[in-house]
Design brief:
single chain, about 290 residues, mainly alpha, 14 helices, about 80% helix
């Protein structure tokens, strides 16, 4: 049998290939996909001792997760027919992983679930599956998948979690797309309260921006302005702050305050990035 140490080896090769710069991105992504597949295959044929099964099983499940995420990346840079192929592939991979962790009595599944009732890798698999369903234009299925996640957190009495917050944010985004703005705001408020983890700060900026968007659509301009200002005033280097500046200029126009809108665009135009370029274009078209 192949060496068990090839499992994390192939996994790390896949991550490295995906993050490399230069050359053909499609070829790099395809090579990364192959590396993650190799990690899974190697796991199936390798021999493990009871005391190290958890270590290698965790790599195996993460390899499957990253394989699916790589397929989604390939979908984003592919023509329509191939895009749908890669999304279907990603969905199948995630559903298979989800089913194995949910129902399987295999030693690897038991090992991963032994230490915590909702393992981190399982959280991420459920979250990525909901996103893939959304990309496949299946919003009702995606919302159902997110609600299943959220219910599980509730059952486990988890109130603060990075992926709980992400799931609620994604639910809010989908509800906003359906123009169910009040329901979206409820989900987003819950997302804000539950935010935790290393990426919490950026997630909260996304939450506030989407809340402002919903409030703008409901013509609750004062509250929308308050949230946009909150994003802008955050002490963090992020393009989300520039997006908030652009959205604040739009909001000033809706409030029939063209001079304030102009000043906001002028401030934004002095900075760098796509939102700055949009501001420059608007100033050029309407000096």
């Amino acid at each position: 049998p192949k060496s068990r140490w090839l499992v994390p080896g192939y996994f790390l090769i896949g991550l490295s290939l995906r993050e490399e710069k230069g050359g053909s991105r499609v070829e790099r992504m395809q090579s990364a996909l192959q590396a993650f597949q190799n990690a899974e295959r190697t796991f199936q044929s390798a021999q493990f001792q009871e005391n190290d099964l958890l270590y290698f099983a965790t790599y195996r499940f993460y390899a499957g997760l990253e394989k699916a995420k790589t397929a989604v990346s390939l979908a984003h840079i592919s023509a329509e027919a191939k895009k749908q192929f890669f999304l279907t592939y990603a969905r199948g991979a995630l559903e298979e992983l989800s089913l194995e962790l949910e129902e399987s009595s295999s030693p690897s599944s038991k090992a991963v679930k032994a230490l915590e009732p909702y393992p981190k890798v399982q959280e991420q698999i459920h979250y990525e599956l909901a996103k893939v369903l959304s990309l496949q234009k299946k919003p009702d299925e995606a919302l159902a998948a997110l609600d299943t996640m959220i219910t599980r957190y509730d059952t486990l009495q988890v109130t603060r979690s990075e992926y709980l917050s992400r799931a609620l944010l994604e639910k809010g985004r989908m509800l906003a797309e359906k123009e169910r703005f009040r329901e979206a705001l409820e989900a987003l408020e819950a997302a804000d309260h539950s935010s935790a983890g290393g990426g919490a700060h950026l997630v909260r900026l996304k939450i506030w921006l989407l809340q402002a968007e919903c409030l703008t659509r409901l013509e609750e301009y004062r509250d929308a302005m308050r949230l946009l200002s909150r994003v802008i005033n955050e002490d963090i280097a992020s393009s989300l702050r520039l997006k908030a500046m652009y959205k604040r200029a739009e909001l000033y126009r809706l409030q029939e305050k063209p001079e304030l809108a102009q000043r906001q665009l002028q401030s934004l135009a002095k900075l760098k990035g796509p939102w700055s370029e949009l501001a420059k274009q608007e100033l050029k078209n309407d000096p």
